[in-house]
Each structure stands twice: as structure tokens, then as C-alpha cells.
Amino acid sequence: MTVPSVPRRAVEDDYVLYRRIPDFGHKDLMVFNNETGNWRPSSAAYVFDADGCSVYCREFLDADRLSWRDLPMKPVSILFELTASQIRSKFPDVVHSPYPEGHFADRPHEASHCSVLRGDVGDNAVRKRLKALFSMGRFTNFDAATGQVTESVSNDSGPAASA
Amino acid sequence: MTTMMDRPNAGNAISMPVEYLRSQSVDIVHEQWRREGGLGEDKPTKSDLIKDAVEVANRLLRLPHGWDGKNARRVDPTVALTMVRFIESLIDDGSPDAQLSPLPDGGLVAEWLVGDDSVEVRVHPGLRWSIWAERADGVDEVEASFERPEQGRAAIEQARIFLSKMGEHVRVRRPRSR
């Protein structure tokens, strides 16, 4: 299948990036804080491969008349949101990388695919940077079967409105 | 649910009139125990915590290939067994909750989080493993990686002591939906 040629777009600082977090009904890739009662993603939820860590840009989805609801949601049912500037405060960059290898043209949401670049740092540095990032952002939990939002929480300023 | 008969000494902390207690639900009694710092249901034993970890590990072992929607491998049973042994070495009565997550390579992560203090153990297929214990100020109490599970006893002991201190600040337990 031919992969469409999509021009690389600039990811502005205020753009929102979604990370899809697999969930099996038990928040298995989320971690509960035993002091505050808050949740944040597990470090296992942001895994970097050679191309970086995959995220999807809300503004690019909007431009293509798509939304987070068009992202594949099984087994995923949690989205963690960060702005590009939040990501850039801890990692070298987040760049538009449409249709990564192995993702085909019948998946239009892949045109909004972006990559968080890890930089030349070790695992512990990545872990620390992720930990700092996870104190920001917002996660949305929803029923994968119905698409209904069941929980939407901002780590910056307490509970947020449902997405 | 635990009853007063299960924890006979815990009721000594309660000085409210019997009539008042009778007019309330049993949960009021349990809440009073908890506030008095007694052995409430939110202070599990080491055995309870290990049992929880084993249950979660067993569940994660049943995840299919591609559980992440891509090419994630199934959790390696040897990794799961090794992780449970690490958890057993690290925790004590009242420790924070060990929270297990799968890794795409078939490994597992265990994380403990209390405020900004955290401990993380990663075990990969082949049993290469890493451990980090990080204080709220960002300083690492422990940062080490090993090629085999028999290695790293000193690191485990350091992390165990740190985790024990973290346990003193546990205020709320992970909801038991798991």
C-alpha cells in the first residue's frame, strides 16, 4: 500500500499532543500516588524506540477533520495530554512524523503522528524527565466500547472538564 | 470486610458513645480506627501486598501478543516470577502499593509512588534488571543496573530501607479495582 506524502508541519508550542496508553480495565499503565491519591502514567506508558515516542497532535487531527475519537482505542482507553512546550521543557524536541514505518494509508490519523525525541541520554535521565512531565498534563479515561469519557483529570490544576 | 472481632484491640481507640455508634454505619467505626492509626484495612500486611502483586502479575501474563496495539510481546513468565521475588525482598507490612506495568519487550516495571518519592524496578527478558529509588528533591538514593537477578543485594537493601520510610507517608491506597 502506498503511504501518502504528507508535508511536515511545525509543531507549535501550544499544540496538544496525545499519548495513547493501553488499558485493560485496571489502569495497568498508570501509577497511583499513595500520598496524594492522584494518578500519573507509568514510565512504561512512554516507551522510546529508535524513532522516539509516538504521540498524536490535536491540531493536526483538527485540520484533517478528525479528533482523538478517531485514534484506535482498543486496547487503548486512556489518553495523556501534554503541550509541545511542556514536552520541550524536558526533551530535545517533538516533531511531526506522519505515517511512521508500518503504518498505512488506510489510517488517516497517522497523518497527525508526531515523535518525541529522546536525545542522547541514558535510561535514568529519561525516567527522571518523564517523571517531571507526568506532574503536568491531563489524562482522559474512557470506555473503549462506547467512547464515553469516564474520567478527565488535570495534574496541573485538579479535576478538569470532560473532553 | 474486616470486623471488630477480627481486630479486637483496635476498638480501644474509640471513645464515642455506643448509642452514637449504633446510629451510624459500620464504616464510621472503621474510619475511626484508620484515623487513630491502628491496623486499618488501609495498612495491609506484607503477605497481602505480595498476594496483590501476584494477582496482577498473573493477569498481565495473560495479555496477548500485541497488547499495545502494535508489536508488544507477551510478558515473560520468568520475568514475572523474578519481579515477584524482588517485590518480596523490597516490601514490608504497610509498604506502599507495588504497581506493575507491562513493557513492550516482555518485561515488567514495578513502581512505588508516595508524594514525590519513588522506587522503580524494571526486569527485562533475560533477567537483566534495573532499580531506581529517587527522593522528592530529585536525588537518587539508588541507581543501579545488573545483568542477573542474583546481583544487586546491596542496592535492594538500600531501596528496601527507602521504601520503608516511604511507607510512613502512605495516606491512601490504590483503589482495588484490579
Summarize the structure.
Chain A is 14% helix and 29% strand. Chain A has 3 helices and 10 strands; from the N terminus they run ββββαβαββαβββ. Chain A has helices spanning 58-63, 84-88, 123-134; strands spanning 16-22, 30-32, 39-41, 53-57, 76-83, 93-96, 113-117, 138-142, 149-154, 158-159.
Widest sheet, order of strands of chain B: 1-2-3-4-5
Give the overall form of chain A. Answer: globular
Radius of gyration of chain A: 15 Å
Widest sheet: strand ordering of chain A: 6-7-4-1-5-8-9-10
What can you see in these coordinates?
- The complex is a heterodimer of chains A (163) and B (178).
- Chain A contains 3 helices and 10 strands.
- Helix content of chain A is 14%, strand content 29%.
- Residues 157-163 of chain A have low confidence and may be disordered.
- In chain A, strand 9 (149-154) and strand 10 (158-159) form a beta hairpin.
- Chain A has an 8-stranded antiparallel beta sheet. In chain A, strands 2-3 form a two-stranded antiparallel ribbon.
- Chain A is an alpha+beta fold.
- Chain B has 2 domains: 1-41, no CATH class; 46-167, no CATH class.
- By secondary structure, chain B is an alpha+beta fold.
- In chain B, a hairpin with a 5-residue loop joins strand 3 and strand 4.
- In chain B, helix 3 (46-61) packs antiparallel against helix 4 (77-90).
- The A-B interface holds A 20, 22, 24-29, 31-37, 40, 42-45, 47, 72, 74-76, 123-124, 127-128, 131 and B 56, 59-60, 63, 67-69, 96-97, 99-104, 109, 111-115, 118, 120, 130, 132, 134, 138, 140, 143, 145, 166, 169-175, 177-178.
Write the topology of this structure:
The complex is a heterodimer of chains A (163) and B (178).
Chain A: E1 16-22, E2 30-32, E3 39-41, E4 53-57, H1 58-63, E5 76-83, H2 84-88, E6 93-96, E7 113-117, H3 123-134, E8 138-142, E9 149-154, E10 158-159
Antiparallel strand pairs in A: 1-4, 1-5, 2-3, 4-7, 5-8, 6-7, 8-9, 9-10
Chain B: H1 18-22, H2 26-35, H3 46-61, H4 77-90, E1 99-102, E2 108-114, E3 117-123, E4 129-134, E5 140-146, H5 153-167
Antiparallel strand pairs in B: 1-2, 2-3, 3-4, 4-5
